[in-house]
Amino acid sequence: MKTRWRDGDHSREVELTALGAGRWRVRVDEAEFEVAAERLPEGVLELTADGRSTRAEVTPAGTRRFVRLGTLDFVLERDTAGRRRAAAGGRGHGPGGGGGLEAPMPGVVTKVMVAVGEHVKRGQPLLALEAMKMEHLIRAPHAGVVRRLAANAGDMVQAGAELVELEEGEP
Amino acid sequence: MFAKILIANRGEIACRIAATLRDLGIRSVAVYSEADRGALHTRVCDEARAIGPAEPRASYLNAEALVRAAREAGAQAIHPGFGFLAENADFADAVESAGLTFIGPTGAQIRAMGDKREARRLAAKTGVPVVPGAEGADTRALVRAADAMGYPVLVKAALGGGGKGMRKAADAAGLAEAIEAARRVAGSAFGDESVYLEKLLERPRHIEVQVLGDGQGRALHLFERDCTLQRRHQKVVEEAPSPALDARLRAEVARAAVRLAEAVRYRGAGTIEMLWTREAGFHFLEMNTRLQVEHPVTELVTGVDLVRAQVEIAATGRLPFEQPPGPPRGHAIEARVYAEDAARDFLPQAGTALRVRWPEGASVRVDRGLESGDSVSVHYDPMLAKVIAHGATRTEALERLVAALDEARIHGVVTNLPFLRALLRAPEAVSGGYDTEWIEREFLAGFSALMRAPAPELALAAAAIAEALDGAAPAARGPAARRRLDPFAALGRWRLAGLEA
Hints:
The structure holds two protein chains of two kinds. The longest helix of chain A is centred in the middle third of the chain and has 7 residues, at 81-87. Chain A has one helix at residues 81-87, and strands at residues 2-7, 10-20, 23-28, 31-40, 44-49, 52-61, 64-69, 72-78, 98-102, 107-112, 119-120, 125-131, 134-139, 144-149, 156-157, 162-168. In chain A, strand 4 and strand 5 form a beta hairpin. Chain A has two domains: 2-81, Beta Barrel (Lipocalin), CATH 2.40.128; 96-168, CATH 2.40.50.100. In chain A, strands 1-2-3-4-5-6-7-8 form an eight-stranded antiparallel β-barrel. In chain A, strands 9-16-14-11 form a four-stranded antiparallel beta sheet, with no helix packed on it. By secondary structure, chain A is mainly beta. Chain B folds into three domains: 4-103, Rossmann fold, CATH 3.40.50; 132-199, ATP-grasp fold, A domain (Dna Ligase, domain 1, 2-Layer Sandwich); 205-451, ATP-grasp fold, B domain (D-amino Acid Aminotransferase, Chain A, domain 1), CATH 3.30.470.20. In chain B, 38% of the residues lie in helices and 25% in strands. Chain B has helices at residues 11-24, 40-44, 63-73, 89-97, 107-114, 116-125, 139-149, 172-190, 247-263, 295-302, 306-316, 394-407, 417-423, 427-431, 438-452, 457-470, 487-496, and strands at 4-7, 27-33, 47-52, 77-79, 101-102, 133-135, 153-157, 167-169, 195-199, 205-214, 219-231, 234-240, 267-277, 281-288, 331-338, 340-341, 347-348, 351-352, 355-357, 364-368, 375-376, 383-391, 409-411. In chain B, the strands form six sheets. Chain B has an eight-stranded antiparallel beta sheet with strand order 14-13-10-11-12-15-22-20, with helices on both faces. A five-stranded parallel beta sheet of chain B has the order 3-2-1-4-5, sandwiched between helices. At the A-B interface, strand 1, strand 2, strand 3, strand 4 and strand 5 of A face strand 17, strand 18, helix 13 and helix 16 of B.
């Protein structure tokens, strides 16, 4: 079984093969190893590899997985980009030509500075997002035309929510 | 003594105040905005009252709603905590004119210390050295003054504080620009464009003294705290006593603080903040007329409950005890846990804390505003909790704090725990040899590189195996730590025990 994960700026692939009796063959990118996994109460996994053991706790939160390994914490994201692009199919919203601008953090949209159909320059502020006493300006990453506004002033948005659809190109 | 007190705050500080009120046998009244319905601070208080929508202006900053809630609840006093209206003189006055007691200084004292220029004048008058500076409305005159005292200089908002809107300038051209920018920020954040200049002290430590005053000219101190570990002028880790001061310097800074508190006839708990370098000595920075975030380190090395002292001073107009003799008992260090992503420029985070486990132990204290299943809102300050450790020595306290932070876990919302764990393991943190800019100047680059490194393969294996074991819909399991309870079925046990009324 293959799964793809976002780990910070890295995209990583994991392939799992069940060997039975709680043992798995794991391939992460180029690295391969065998690990035994035992379920303990409260979602804890005891992982044993090469005679050494550690405890892992995995908490799913949407597409994210909070993973604690020993005393270290990591946040991984289940990469479903392929599926999402397929679902959006036919809307001309692919990874190449501009597309959506997302909220970098959860917050409240305090100001929308552009209108649909408006030509914007690279770096032009499009809207302002406020969270926990901080204001962030969402700027155009390139020149283009505002195709759609997915948020209004006063809207509460989650991190990663699409705010503006911007079509690339000079006026 | 009061029978009932309203806590005009939220989060960990509201919970902290409620704990002392419980000790004193005083009933506590929580207030909450629509975003905080069912939040931990409403659960730990004896009663809770709704005060308005999520936006702070409409709720926690709404003086009228707070005073009304206090009267309706039959409270005799209001404790403001810190932040929100804690240093708002008009609020203090409004509480008093409604016939209630404001647990804090007088409105006039808040006003005097809130104008940082006035506070500097008061400090200088009582013989507390102030950083060389200049004030005035004319930009060109300010630039001339800076030319005379030498660069770099800091531009600060007169009614600001805590580093907000502060700007650094290295030369005359940069200064004119910094003054204009600081005026804009001050105007929108504090409703007053006035700014003033201070010569920048190179590589200082932040030392502050906890004082208590009776409002009639008597004050005592509870030693100093060292809050030198800062990021962008925001405190991250605080400790008591300061690892940089010897007994002579400790006594010197405490004496200066008491002198100032007595000169202004200060009432209640306050903090006098100083910058210190070995070469230049102490310089007055500002006075905070409230309980500080970092007050627990003082409590652990003195055995004094500062909230109790505040309540007693407000009730009796007297200091509840005499000046404690030195030195402080052992050492205490506090780390602030924030919902922010250290890997992405410390952006604030929100969401549901699905799984929260706080450290425990005889020498560890956790002042928290959040348990498993609670949500972190975008509307408020992202500080979730403070983890504080005590030890006989600084080394012991630090080791206990690191172990406690390792044990702490919060899943569901990204926090700065990895940052704190790495920070407190740095050799400089262990030796105590840092200044207020050390984190940004030397620590962050290495830490960011660490955060950008790929996670260990075993972490990815754990995530993938958990998903394989749990099937296709792992998220549907919901908050792991919450037990589903049928409240009516649970009543059965009490019925059987014959306790039904």
